Amino acid sequence: MTVPLNQSCFTKYQPFVKWVGGKRGLLSQILPLIPKEFNNYFEPFVGGGALFFELYSLGLLKDKKVYLFDINAELINAYNVVKNSPSELIKNLRELKEKHTKEFYYEIRAWDRDENFSQRSEIERASRFIYLNKTCFNGLYRVNSKGYHNVPIGHYKNPNICDELVIYGASEALQKTTILNASYKDVILHVKKNDFVYFDPPYYPLTLTSSFTSYSEFSFLEKEQIELFEVFKKLNKKDVFVVHSNSDTDFIKNLYGEFHIEEIQANRFINSKSSGRGKISEVLIKGKR
Fold first, then answer.
1. What is the pTM for the complete model shown?
2. Range of the domain at 206
3. Secondary structure (DSSP) of the chain
């Protein structure tokens, strides 16, 4: 990675994509639950990586191994390109920004309907991913049952498609990380005693009609939440520090009833009507360490 000299020093590192359920607004409530001392850091549902970037900014990951997982292949490809080829990515994003129109948005969105999509270069796919993220409705990532991105264009006058400082900063932060396109369950293969794992999965829906689980072509409902709980318990028994974010529902609180559960207030942004946005209760669950 080559970073321009005038961009080589960053005082703040932050996500390079917007992400539904991103934790930037909750960091002040999450940080007090983080162990004062831990070995390596794992974020198995990395998403926008807000906690990772905050920990890096605070110097809490110095000399530690960091593992960032996600099952979303396009997101992980974008992370790897930001890490390894930020300048080439920025060049592509500048070109996409110049061409941005409603018609162009839907043309780019339709790339994944093409049987040759997987043959596009990693930089092309990462550029598309970030472009769609910055220009679609609320930065939402959603796919249908075939795995096709299906979020409509957002109404932005001047979307920030190419934030060069953020990309270079993220690239610097990611240099010594291990980035894996893998299930959260694979954390068991790498984690050891006194490591720290932060789980931020797709949340259990507040109501039967409010489910947003199409983050990938894989669902994440009751069965999947129970499977995650079993992994949480295994890690806790291995003397691993574990923190988990989820929705404030009876199902989740009953499931994790033996552990420390803290209710926090978060802002709801994903709603088509502004009247449906506002504060919502979530939970932070901490293992017994």
1. 0.90
2. 1-289
3. ----GGGS--S----SS--TT--GGGHHHHGGGS-SS-S-EEESS-TT-HHHHHHHHTTTTTT--EEEEES-HHHHHHHHHHHH-HHHHHHHHHHHHHH--HHHHHHHHGGGGSTTGGGS-HHHHHHHHHHHHHHBGGG---B-TTS-B-PPBP--SS-----HHHHHHHHHHHTTEEEEE--GGGGGGT--TT-EEEE-PPPPPSSTT----TTSSS--SHHHHHHHHHHHHHHHHTT-EEEEEEE--HHHHHHTTTSEEEEEEEEE---SSGGG-EEEEEEEEE---
